[in-house]
Amino acid sequence: MSSARRSVLRVAIIGIALLLSAAPALAGGWATVRLDKPHDKVLVEVPTTVGFTVLQHDVHPVNVGRATLFAQHKEKGEKLTADARQDGPEGHYLVEVTFPLAGEWKWGVNADLWGEMAFETLTVLSSADEVAADNPIAAEMGRMHPAGIHAGTCDGLNAGIAFELDDVRLGEPDAAAPVKEMVGAETAFPVATSISSIDAPLTEIIGGDHAINVLADGTAKDAIACGDIGGLMVGDELAVGLGERNASGYTGVALLRAVGDRTEVTIYLARDPAGVGSEGASASADATTVTIVNGAFSPARLEIAPGTTVTWRNEDGIAHSVMGDDLAFDDSSVLSPGQSFSQSFDTSGTYTYKCGPHPGMVGTITVKEAVGSP
């Protein structure tokens, strides 16, 4: 082979190598963006620092030429962008962003050659009061839940209270020992308590039909939790479960302990905000599943009726995401194998979406009224 031909071949090989190194997609590369922590307490017009890591193949941290946070208000359409700076270990970035409008924002990160990766829809709150209200522990502070033991059962209580119980509230039952510090996760279920001593032996209370009933507040007549008194005695104690009433989200336990001729009643009442309104609620009239497997959405084209809930379930061996092209479409964050993401579609139309790490993976959802519907 002549030296000229060898030189041409060498240049071609170098050129191909440069192309492969410059464009990760050509080499079969892909990346994800993982947030340092969830951002569900963002306040309008207050700077928020967002940390994230760019991961090649969702495994190896990698620096990029430029990482830009992007966001768009779902109702107003207003857009914002902010450049991130590399900070700390390889692949880790920080960006400070101020959201000018309250409401829901679609947002994510454009990681240069790796493309755009979305996060779940962000709700920006309009005031510090809303932030506090969104915290289940803060929302429970100050609430007093009247409680009493009634004759009868929860499904047929006597109107009058047979035995008064102290109000159930968050914090120390003794008013002289108020809550001093909230610790741990803000999303923990708050537990309200009360301790009462009533002038009646435990044998009298369990000898007839009685139930413990807890109300929302001093003016409400509807119960939020109730439990028929009965069950297994352990020593001198009886544990009674308190079930949810009127879709309140409250459940709990009452411990009744014999103390001579008196009975000590301790109530623990917990509220799961995610469960509020669950009693009597029916499941979605229609639901369907899109499976993510073998690098594709299956089915890739779906026709559904308004009100249908679609769940994407990642059954592939690698991470994927669901990124809608329409503002009305909520995006998922990165879905690791085994994870799922759901949203309901109420408005007729055609919605297209893709996988952030693999933009060649696309899907379409057509929401269509049935023929002859009003």
Provide tags for this entry:
374 residues, mainly beta, Immunoglobulin-like, 3 domains, 8-stranded antiparallel beta barrel, 5-stranded antiparallel sheet, 10% helix
Describe this structure in words.
With 374 residues, this protein is mostly beta strands. It has 3 domains: 27-133, Immunoglobulins (Immunoglobulin-like); 136-275, no CATH class; 287-367, Immunoglobulin-like, CATH 2.60.40. The protein has helices at 3-22, 128-133, 136-140, 202-207, and strands at residues 31-35, 42-43, 48-56, 60-61, 68-73, 79-83, 85-86, 92-97, 103-110, 116-125, 145-153, 156-170, 191-198, 210-215, 223-228, 233-234, 237-244, 250-259, 262-271, 287-293, 296-298, 301-304, 308-314, 323-324, 340-345, 349-354, 362-367. An 8-stranded antiparallel beta barrel has the order 11-12-13-19-18-17-15-14. Strands 1, 3, 4, 7 and 8 form a 5-stranded antiparallel sheet that branches. It has a 5-stranded mixed sheet with strand order 2-10-9-5-6. The longest helix is centred in the N-terminal third of the chain and has 20 residues, at 3-22. The model is unreliable at 11-28, 175-179 and 275-284 (pLDDT under 50).
Instruction: Assign a percent range to the helix content.
Output: under 10%
* Class inferred from helices and paired strands: mainly beta
In the sheet with the most strands, the strands line up as: 11-12-13-19-18-17-15-14
Overall shape: it is elongated
Tally of alpha and pi helices = 4
Largest sheet: number of strands, sense, barrel closure: 8 strands, antiparallel, barrel
